[in-house]
Amino acid sequence: MKAFFKIFTIAFLGFIVLFNSIIFTFNYFMKDQHGKGNSIVVRAAEEDKEEVIPPDEMDILLQLASESSRINIVLLGLEGLRSDTNMFISYDPDNKQIDVISIPRDTYYPRKGYTGLGKDKFNAVYQDHGADGVKMALSDLLLNIPVDHYITVNYKGAEAIINTLGGVPVYIPELMSYEDLYDDPPLKIHFEPGHHLLNGEDGVKFLRYRQGSPGSGAMSYADGDLGRIRAQQEFMKSAFKKAISFRLPTVVATAFRFVRTDVDLQEAVKYATMAAGMEIENVNMLTLPGVDEYRNGLSYFFLDEEETKTLLLNMYGYVVETENEDDVVEIGD
Prior knowledge:
This is LytR family transcriptional regulator. The protein is α+β, with helices and mostly antiparallel strands. The chain has nine helices and 14 strands.
């Protein structure tokens, strides 16, 4: 009997070591290796920039962030070495709420030492600094709110995840038709108006769509990339609604194979377990405040820091107290 327990103990310990080694190796290879060693991002000084946020309001925001149990993640949809889709996802485990802030890819973000064409746009940061650099740049844009993790996914990964869900239902109000025969492979998009259950390949086409081909009579988003962002947000909300109708931890564990992230598998499943039973009404889709403008012939999106501060204070549930104690204005849920 003693020999049995000795053998069992040795075998059990060996299994634990082997299992942990496998998990460690898996988590290591799930990390995004692009831009390693070049993740330091330094924003260049902006001309005519005015300080619009009082220091005390900034202190309140950063204090709220430091005391919060929120988990903040940047999701990057990659097109080659540029981030075509950028979303800040903040999960509040206490209230089981998710706030998603879409970051327009043309957001003006000048960096010291990077002066090439388009290098002063947010979607160029990944190419030069990788996912860790994007975390730093996004935190900078969001007034130093911490960005804890990143998730990157390319078109093939997005296709696989959508297929894992069994497709995503969307309503398309107008004809969408576009061709780019010079893309590799050639891109052909065609959706008739109506309700659709989009598989992985068609889902990615829907997410990429911006405008109709000339002469096709198809819709183009009137406000450009902001219109595409709204369509992407509706798609994401529909996908999440379908995901939570399944066993969310199982969906996350399956989808984990198709992304690159600094979230460990065990941690990802833990987050998904925490979010189980969440209501779709608790998913808020937002867009970074700002305005579209042209500069030197290029389209840019310029951040409105004052509105961004208000949005973030609202997200963190800031309560504004007035001189009259009976007149307390609560911002947020």
